[in-house]
Amino acid sequence: MIRQSEDARLSPAQDRMHKIRSLNDGFRKGMGSGRVMLTQGIVALGDAAVASVMLAVQEFDGFSTDNDPYGEHDFGSFEHAGERMFWKIDYYDSDCLSGSPDPSDPAVTTRVMTVMLAGEY
Predict the structure, then answer these.
(1) Which residues of 100-110 are buried (b: 16+ CB within 10 A; e: fewer)?
(2) Whole-angstrom Cα distance, residue 20 to residue 44?
(3) 63-111, pLDDT tens digit by residue?
(4) How many domains does the chain have?
(5) β-strands 35-38, 75-80: how paired?
(6) For burial by CB atoms within 10 Å, which of 53, 54, 96, 107 has the most?
(7) CA quadruple 112, 116, 118, 119: dihedral positive or negative?
(8) Domain that holds residue 26
């Protein structure tokens, strides 16, 4: 967590990235609003497996410069029951008709997280 005194030293780009990261983490962990999409491959695993996969998505903390180059926490990859899984958060406008004009502003952004088998990518 960034302390108040550190916030004052952030550039506008860093401040925006931190806002997006916080919104993405809150959404992914079930504390923010948005839409969750499950691919056919995920649904076919069955209810118990879907619940386990979603828990793994919520608890994901394997972010690195390789899988999170912009620091937004908008993508994750993990193993579940021998299968590689991906989740990805995209930013749409309020009507989900085009991209968000500002992903750091929840008033104009709908977050959509897609959870999929790696083979479905």
Answers:
(1) beebbebeebb
(2) 32
(3) 999 999 999 999 999 999 999 999 999 999 999 999 999 999 999 999 9
(4) 1
(5) unpaired
(6) 53
(7) negative
(8) 11-120
